[in-house]
Amino acid sequence: MISLTILCKPSFAKKDHGQGAGIPVLKTIWDLFDLSLLFFQSGIRNHSGTPAWLLAFAYICGLINHVDSANQNAKFSTKVPFLRQLLSGEIISQSAFSRFLSKPFQWLWFSLGRLARLQENSDSRLTDGDIILDDTKVEHPHGKKIPFLCWLFDSSDKRHVWCINLVSTLSVLKNGLEYPMLWRFWGKASQENEKQTKLDLAKQMLLEVRQVNNARLWIAMDRWFLCKKFLKWLMDERFDWVTKAKRNTVLFSKIYDPVLGKEHYVKLNPKQLLREVYPRIRVLGKGSVLSIPDIYIKIPFETLTRKGKPITRQRFLPIAAIAATYEKQATEGSVILLEEEYPATFKDAYLLISNRVDAPEEAATANARRWRIEVFYRMAKQNLGLTSCYARA
User: Does residue 4 sit within a domain?
Assistant: First the structure.
């Protein structure tokens, strides 16, 4: 006998779809932001007798359909009816795709123009959304002579890899929309005047964001970016930040000394702080967060002495300290890191810190959104040819 639950469920016909499903939707979005014109304005016009925007669009369609090489992408563009119609019968060869991806076009100008277009649309504009700042290593074992590749240690895989070191920003809006923003490739430089740190690259990207958007934005970042001068720079540029505290992060608590009759600051170790609040957060259960009041860090600031000489002093900044719990990973203890790079943890709890002492819940939510960047990184690692072309630019 058929149950009433099954009878009440709607029945939908299972429709099969061929290759290229969803490409018309992508073309609609492409036209919404007028990216074809943006290619022309950025000086990326024709290549191998085909409009550059059409080459890029066809290649992106292949990437979305998990095509893993330029050769396979050339075959894909001849099979899909929508692309055949768009190309008017032209055939894009494997060499055309390869030479297009390796030619040094002004991709940076294009990415800045794309970001500006996104800020003109109400659905994609950064208002109360987040910018996610992070870096990852994209392995490239076969490119031996590409100048921006180098040997680096990947702590997630626990091995040295010949790779591209990608520093990037990704927006995650509260309406659910996500899109990659800007990126830079960090490399080892032999000349002292050519050296740039990842923090320098991050500042460049965020200043470029400020050229097209002045909203107050979140920077949810990995603990590698936990540098006090960088944190101060973010606040000066009206960015809010949140990150995990490291094991060696020095925190302070303000207490009243009855002997001296005044308040003073006492050093506090993050692990010690987690140990003190752990009984309370354990009662709340897995995935919970607990705000810890009256926690401070020292932030440097530039000032002048009485004689007018510049000097760097320290001042105490109140911060939001948020204890949170997580599910332990089986391999977590085997990851090889420098001692000072380990996160501050106690049992299954870790500590978040943020400048938004008035909004600890919002800081915790922003940090949770940071992990959405892993989707973008997986795409970058799978589609190394496209990221390589951006790196050359």
Answer: no
| Domain edge (last residue) among 90, 105, 120 | 105
Distances (CA, A) of 219 to 171, 200, 368: 10, 15, 12
Whether 127 and 253 map to the same domain: the answer is yes
Which residue ranges in the chain fall short of pLDDT 50? 1-2, 193, 329-340, 380-393
How many domains are contained in the chain? Answer: 2
Asked if 170 and 132 count as a contact pair (C-beta separation under 8 A), the reply is: yes
> Which amino acid, one-letter code, is at 145?
K
Looking at residue 194, what DSSP letter applies? G
> Residue 232 is encoded by which pair of tokens?
């101060």
Domain membership flag for residue 92: yes
pLDDT tens digits, one per residue of 144-182: 777 778 887 776 667 788 888 888 898 988 888 888 899
Q: Look up the pTM and report it.
A: 0.80
**143-177 burial code (b ≥16 CB/10 A, e <16):** eeeeebbeebebeeeeeebbbbbbbbbbbbbeeee
